Task: structure prediction
Amino acid sequence: MADLISIGITALRANQAKLTTTSHNIANAGRAEYSRQEVIVNSLAPQSTGSGFFGNGVSVDGVRRSVSELAISELRAASSELSRSQYSLQSAERIDATLSEADAGLTGVMQRFFDSMQQAAESPSSLANRQIVMDEGNQLSQRFNSLNNFLDEQQQSLNKDMKASVKDLNSLLGNMSEINRQISSYQGNSINNMPNDLLDERDAILRDISSMLSISIVAGNESMTNVFTSSGQPLVLGTTTYEVGTQISTDNAEQLDLTIVGKNSNQVISDSISGGTLGGLIEFRENVLNPSYNQLGRLAITIADQFNAQHKLGLTLNNDIGGFVFSDINSDAAALGRSVVNADNSDPTNQQVRVNISDTTQLTTSDYLLEFPQGNPTAYTVTRLSDNTKVAEGTFNGTYPSTVEFDGLEVSIEAGDFAAGDKITLFPTREGAALIDFEIENARDLALAQPTRTVANQTNRGSAKITAETVLDTTTPFFTSDPGNLNPPLIVRFTSATTYDVLDNSDPNNPTELLPPLNGLRFSPGVTNNLLPVDDGSLGVRSDGSAMGFIQRNAVSNTYTNSVASESFRLTNVDPDTGSLTSSTFNSAAGDSAKDIAAVWNAQEGVTASARTKATLSNVNSSTPMIVTLNGQNFSVSTATQLAADINSNTALAGLGIKATSDGDTIELLDANGEDLNISITGGASDSVLVTAENGSDVLLTGNDAIPEATISGVVDLVLEEGSSVRGQNSVFSLAPTASSRFLGMQLSMSGNPIVGDEFKVEFNNNGAADNRNALALSELQTKKILDNAGTTLQDDYGSLVDYVGVQTRQSKIKFEASLVVVEQAQARRDEISGVNLEEEAGKILQYEQAYNAAAQLVSVARSLFDTLLNAMR
Result:
């Protein structure tokens, strides 16, 4: 009977444990983190008898959770991804809504600004229209400022969220280490003897941690769980917690970095964080916020630069060259503020780097990293961070400034101490929208006119017309050396149907050569020609030696010689790719004509030479009559006009390139090829002619001269490639002749067919109030492709920013919705294994109640049998 009672008691205990555990399940059914528990029972060892083995009842071996580590891990990962995509979506939606909204974004205000400019172009003298341009320009710059302020607010909110999330994370990590301690102290000797409720609490903490960032779990000793970031940095090791912190970024003081806090230094982990709220925060910052700053800034910089550049080519109502419309994109504050010295650089951190924007058409939206690599403190590299491409490298020798150019930027190392390992981050466009400002305060200062005008001579007989008059640069001496005037005004004079000169027209009665000269230029009839030199950096050099352009009297009859001595020349060229210098030395012979010397120069690389010889015959006295001999051709002289006509009809002289013009009193002789002009006279004592060359004293030839002969030498003009230079020995060229830019700062385009003598004047456009040419050019910036290497318009660029943020927002929404489904599925899988089914638990209660009652009845029967047996033995 004792065995029967014992068996009944084990049954009572087992069913009581089951009832207790089932009641615990029912009590916790509403808790999401709770895992259903079940009692683990096993039969006791049977008793061997001669009649066989008889059972001894049941033992309770423990209580365990119904869990799947795989399901829990999947739910944890899905929750981390959901938190990441949710934060990224909510943040991106705020920026998307603001940029795309008509009243808050840029589209409307940009359109109104361009509309006002078009209205001003229709009536450029209207002060009211000009005031509207100013009002809309102010609105545009202020809208850029307000959008930048909005992004600043998002940055500040992000920093607050990061700090709050880190605070919550550290609290969870502390809870994790404490639960590890409790589990370690309470655990039993087997898997069925564990503090199940603490294990559920630990899973819940791990899920909360994963909602902050993606983690990996590694089992430790004594059933402790170690927690690491997804990239391997420890967060919890047993009961030890590694605190997560924030610090100001070493590359950007406006942003925070995530760190693992150490005793002596902090380890930055921002780049290795993924998943969770912190991962979503960093993803939003890198994929939406920073690109929005940069692209919005680039647009502001480009608008300011392009409008300023075009406006400076115009003329105000006060006859002044235009100034800044918007703030200077390369002001000291802007240029020096585009670089941030890394906080970890070696002391002293006094490095100063200037970032000028040289070409907004090439400007990207990327940031850059300027590094001085370890092991070589004199070398540096520049990496474009958007695609991790090295865009520049060089050697810094400590001489300031040291400049490198790439992607439309001119980066200049200005000052400071640099050491191997130093880093400087460049932010060319980030502050562009913050710094833009409308500068014009007086409507009269809007430069809507063009500072030049061309006037065709009314006596022109050809069909040639100026088709375009383009001002390209008003900083050249042509515009700046005499404010309010052109210096000098020009006249384009056609010397034939295919050649023309551009002359200084300061004295309209006596146009003179420019210096460097623009003579004998070629024109192609019937097509559009550009008449003036382009801005290619070329330089003009005129032969300035003592023998060039001078008159030499003959010492021996019929022996025509100039005074040109032999000379050695040195030409130095600059390689445009490497900057290296190369020099060559060559010679001309004594007595060479300007044509001969030009041929010597034309045989060299990097230079183009031309030559011409000029002389003037005046005070012509002919009574005998007088005979004038010009380069072997004899002419009987009666009047200056008749002599010029005879020279021009001479085929031999025409073959040499010699022409003559006369105003009735003087005769201008020109050899367009640079041959020497040999002149002599034959006549009586009263016959004479005064010969004038370009340089030196005049020579009077008379019939009484023993040798009435003279030679006029020509001059040589060189066009040198940019950076090239010339040295001579003073006969042809001086030791260091002056080199001047040939570029005037404007261009004239002409079509049609000119006739010799046709002239076109270029004058300063004084009082051009009705002129709208620069206003039209400013208006055209709306549709001109001036970004991305001349591939994108201003409006398109802002549209691409709105589209980019919209795409990022839609992608975040898709990821969020997908993550939500994954979490629901992972939760369902976990609940299917670990969840509490109340109907099932209620059924178990009835089952265990009946079993408990049956066990109690068994004990009662055993006791009754035992009492009966005792009574029988009395």
User: Anything to note?
Assistant: The chain has a mean pLDDT of 91. The two ends are 18 Å apart (CA to CA). The CA atoms of residues 489 and 507 lie 9 Å apart. The longest helix spans residues 127-186.
